[in-house]
Amino acid sequence: MIDGKILKNMTFDDLLLRYPFVTTYFDNNKLDVEGYGTMTFDDYLGQFDEDYVETWAMDKEKIKEDLLAYILQMLSFLGLKDEQSVGSITILPGQDKSGHKEAFEAITIKSGDIVSIVGPTGSGKSRLLADIEWTANFDTPTKRGVLINGAVADTKWRFSSSNKLVAQLSQNMNFVMDLTVEEFLELHAKSRMVENVDQVINTILESANQLAGEQFMRTTPVTALSGGQSRALMIADTAILSTSPIVLIDEIENAGIDRKKALKLLVSSEKIVLIATHDPTLALMADQRIIIKNGGIHKIISTDDEEKMILSELEKLDKIVGNLRHNLRLGNRIDQSMFV
Length: 340
Ligand SMILES: Nc1ncnc2c1ncn2[C@@H]1O[C@H](COP(=O)(O)OP(=O)(O)OP(=O)(O)O)[C@@H](O)[C@H]1O
Description:
10 strands; alpha/beta; ATP-binding; Rossmann fold; nucleotide-binding; 15 helices; ABC_transporter-like_ATP-bd
């Protein structure tokens, strides 16, 4: 949700990614923000000393208020206002496959949170994601309820194709159209009515290439992208251009993409990220994990310090496995030295 907090917490890079149109505000107000990407707006204003503020009659509070008002106005103009305002979702208990009531009161997930969903094959992980996508109102096989901002969801989320509550990143990302990466991103950026299409394409391409092992270019046809590259492209595109406040991921397989960076990119844009996974590294990257058993939510575990420590060990192991994979791909022999 948009309030003064974003000026305190978001860096310029984040602000520009989330609300690319703010560059116009900075230009109009003669604020030179070039080179301050890692700074927050509050910190940026903080560096103007009293003399400067007096000489130029700078009203810092007004600048902040106006920036927030500008963002809200632009979002409303672009028809994005409602989509931006999902601050939390709440899951209310239903029943498992045997009809037993789920033993929790309510699970609330806030924007910027990552939640993993684990459980045996066929236990109901995808079903939970589907309940969220459908904003279940005790009318799905699980009889769960899903609230948006603590209230029963507006039916617009269910039936509107432009007001998408959820962006899905599924296992298979096969492009069928004959477009280059640039053309694909341009189409998407234009449909979102962003101002600085070229800059947004650059940002997405840069982010995607940071996630993918093998680099690709603007001119690469989307049909020529590898599994990992297309996944990286879709993740960067979702984080930067999609206005859906919730991202549902049905397992990011290990297709050579940096999964930690990918999750970071998604949550940096204040999205709620839910990820169904069998992978321990991904499960522990989440702040909380939901354990599903026989179709019901069986337990909710917060990732504690010990698990976070184990996560960093797991990441080292993943690195070793990644290196082995790389060597296998290059046709090298595997030897003991690769295990350190
Ligand atoms: N509480 C429930 N009541 C009735 N049916 C359920 C319930 N939960 C899940 N199911 C059904 O069980 C089947 C398997 O569930 P689902 O596909 O969600 O499993 P999964 O954990 O995602 O499996 P996998 O790990 O193989 O992807 C689906 O048909 C789903 O609709």
